[in-house]
Amino acid sequence: MFEKLLENLKLNPPLVHNITNYVTVNDCANIVLASGGSPLMADDINEVEDIVSISNALYINVGTLNIRTVEAMVKAGKKANELGLPVVLDPVGVGASKLRNESVETLIDEIDFSVIKGNMSEIKALYTNAKNTGGVDVQEDDLIDDQNIEEAIEFVKKVAKKFNCVIAVTGAIDIVTDSQKVCLIRNGHAIMSKITGTGCMTGSVMATYCGSNKDDIFGAAVIAITMMGLSGEKAYEKIVARSEGTSSFRTYLIDAVSLMDFQILKEGAKIEIR
Amino acid sequence: MFEKLLENLKLNPPLVHNITNYVTVNDCANIVLASGGSPLMADDINEVEDIVSISNALYINVGTLNIRTVEAMVKAGKKANELGLPVVLDPVGVGASKLRNESVETLIDEIDFSVIKGNMSEIKALYTNAKNTGGVDVQEDDLIDDQNIEEAIEFVKKVAKKFNCVIAVTGAIDIVTDSQKVCLIRNGHAIMSKITGTGCMTGSVMATYCGSNKDDIFGAAVIAITMMGLSGEKAYEKIVARSEGTSSFRTYLIDAVSLMDFQILKEGAKIEIR
Amino acid sequence: MFEKLLENLKLNPPLVHNITNYVTVNDCANIVLASGGSPLMADDINEVEDIVSISNALYINVGTLNIRTVEAMVKAGKKANELGLPVVLDPVGVGASKLRNESVETLIDEIDFSVIKGNMSEIKALYTNAKNTGGVDVQEDDLIDDQNIEEAIEFVKKVAKKFNCVIAVTGAIDIVTDSQKVCLIRNGHAIMSKITGTGCMTGSVMATYCGSNKDDIFGAAVIAITMMGLSGEKAYEKIVARSEGTSSFRTYLIDAVSLMDFQILKEGAKIEIR
């Protein structure tokens, strides 16, 4: 499945419109480029429709939201829906504040998303209005492991049915489902949570793959998570070998995405499709 | 003193709310993670109280301020005071514009700070309404060295008394005082001023240590400055050995913070407590 | 010509006020420092005049514009004109949206620019109101090579005459002209378009050199482009030697600027003055 996804991206490199937070926006732009796409980062309400119109996919990330950008997100999302472009949502930290909950609710009401991606605490907050006291991090109760994986899968399938889109839950074991098909991904490394932006970047890579693979959104979500996880493993090996720390890890993570190809992916992917 | 501070952070890793500038915000988030905390970066006035409520410390940095964020800073600061959370202020570039002076005055009037951290030009501008024509850099007249250190200490003690909090002045020799105790730190390297964000990151590390060490704010300020200075020394050694430049220095600086432990700190710290 | 430009910067390191986008603002600040200047990044309309007043040059970049910042840009630009400071414009993505076109038109109407820098699609959009569907990237039709270079030069000279300033067009062959003198620069590497911010950083370096070389704006534009291109070549060599990717490339690019001197520049520059 990866071969076709990669080939489509190479043949039709997408323009990816990102409306995202100012913390990791530079990482998001660079990871789109590293993945083979071209990033557009406009967020003013007066130009988002024009920018969506020349794009192939839209990525919405609520990391540092404010009222001004939420309106721009809605406008951009509606335009993307109208034009049939894939739209990916990252509801960062939903559950941690009233503004965040209300904004994400508005986004989901107004826009048809292709993929919603988050950690388990965020996805739970989305589905059940649970409080998310971990901020942008997953809460301990929500960690996915081999003990609770079956239960987790059933839950995520329900979420996908409710929101009628692909749901991608990142964690030690990642879960991607469109409510029917399920894919588990066991790539990645714990150190990925020791830098800011791995989640945001995963969303940007997803939007990039969606942009060139409109007919396989599920596959696009899977390849993005696998690629990021595998790149995390390679980056971790490198800092261990060189006795380096978390900032070098960030550099090598993006490096690995830029150097990724079918062969590396095939050899390193730890995925299980059900 | 460092052992206890490090242990508290490890036992109770803090959530650190940063309201900061869009230039170095990514570095701030990454350095909080490298220090062992977890960063939250929300700055919309409608959610800062919710975010403060799940945090253990608040860091306010006026690097790129605008009217919208100043109001959010005040709201966040008051909430933090109400909840008894430590609040660290970095009055970046105060003295360089009327807006900056007025905003910082408002912040100091409305919020009880635990630590105010800046270079000598900023601290002077704060205390005496001096003009700060160096922008965000320290002015030549304000450099601290062995010749003027005694005079500088007396001045900083007065500032600490006036603002009733710990004052941390960074420079070739750093001075930390709560108006009684004084600590001088002689770690660091001149190249630290050749990248943006060392000051901001120092503030974020301070807030991180304050978050886990509410009962030793003075110590938290000292360990943060020492750790950053020592990390600067280690990063400088590395770029010299590898013939690299300022951007590699930035990477290795954050790396060194992420690799820091009691042993390294004990061996490398050049501190003098009076 | 480079020797004098470098010497002036060393003798009078400039304070460079950047009003730029939130995607690459950190890179811009770091490249100003790597070049030997000191960055100021304020963009609130209530302080830009104060900040311009202590600066030596102003850089305006419309990468992520919004109405608030356009007003601040105009105010800052007028103040810079009043004080006789060089002002550099980077009309990022002009042609891609109505807001972008109108904003850039306003800026050009209200401010006297010393240099306007962009890729060929942007410069064409500026001159002919052409649509720029490539977003922030150059469109294929607008690539400059040895076949169309003469035609391109004549066009850029016309643009320089129309806007009465130095025009710097970046591409595989860069063109700098004040409508009379022309300089072609053949430094650089294609990988430079695989990271975000090379264009923005080039603008910041230009403003830095302009700040210390008010009497040789043409030369300042040429040295900035040459230095960035040559640094790109050196960074590329390094990642090839170390089997690294695009993020390491970004690090080494800034490194190379920070390590640049007259000797390196003299040996590596591929410039042709006509």
From TrEMBL, chains A, B, C:
<comment type="function">
    <text>Catalyzes the phosphorylation of the hydroxyl group of 4-methyl-5-beta-hydroxyethylthiazole (THZ).</text>
</comment>
<keyword id="KW-0460">Magnesium</keyword>
<feature type="binding site">
    <location>
        <position position="197"/>
    </location>
    <ligand>
        <name>substrate</name>
    </ligand>
</feature>
<dbReference type="InterPro" id="IPR029056">
    <property type="entry name" value="Ribokinase-like"/>
</dbReference>
<dbReference type="InterPro" id="IPR000417">
    <property type="entry name" value="Hyethyz_kinase"/>
</dbReference>
<feature type="binding site">
    <location>
        <position position="170"/>
    </location>
    <ligand>
        <name>ATP</name>
    </ligand>
</feature>
<keyword id="KW-0067">ATP-binding</keyword>
<keyword id="KW-0784">Thiamine biosynthesis</keyword>
<keyword id="KW-0547">Nucleotide-binding</keyword>
<dbReference type="Pfam" id="PF02110">
    <property type="entry name" value="HK"/>
</dbReference>
<feature type="binding site">
    <location>
        <position position="41"/>
    </location>
    <ligand>
        <name>substrate</name>
    </ligand>
</feature>
<protein>
    <recommendedName>
        <fullName>Hydroxyethylthiazole kinase</fullName>
        <ecNumber>2.7.1.50</ecNumber>
    </recommendedName>
</protein>
<keyword id="KW-0418">Kinase</keyword>
<feature type="binding site">
    <location>
        <position position="117"/>
    </location>
    <ligand>
        <name>ATP</name>
    </ligand>
</feature>
<comment type="similarity">
    <text>Belongs to the Thz kinase family.</text>
</comment>
<comment type="pathway">
    <text>Cofactor biosynthesis; thiamine diphosphate biosynthesis; 4-methyl-5-(2-phosphoethyl)-thiazole from 5-(2-hydroxyethyl)-4-methylthiazole: step 1/1.</text>
</comment>
<keyword id="KW-0479">Metal-binding</keyword>
<keyword id="KW-0808">Transferase</keyword>
<dbReference type="GO" id="GO:0004417">
    <property type="term" value="F:hydroxyethylthiazole kinase activity"/>
</dbReference>
